[in-house]
Amino acid sequence: MRKIERERMAAEITALAGRLGRERSSLIPILLEVKRKYHRIDSDAMQLIGDQLGIRFGETTRPPRPGARSSCATPMKASRGPSRTG
Fold this sequence. Notes:
Blueprint: H1 3-20, H2 27-38, H3 43-53, H4 57-61
Helix pairs in contact: 1-2, 1-3, 2-3
């Protein structure tokens, strides 16, 4: 990413974090906004978003480890596909 693009994206992500909040719960809404505007989320965007939210880069780019505690209030159960009744 060119320096000017990165600076513009950094300013926009800072504004989004100011509007949507700088908590972990703002990660998905900010990612969706960046994706909507830029049609992609590259490693630079992930780093900038992580910086705004106080999340380490690895936490935004890797799935959780098996057995790791979820930050979600309600754990999700694995889906077995569509329910078939009838």
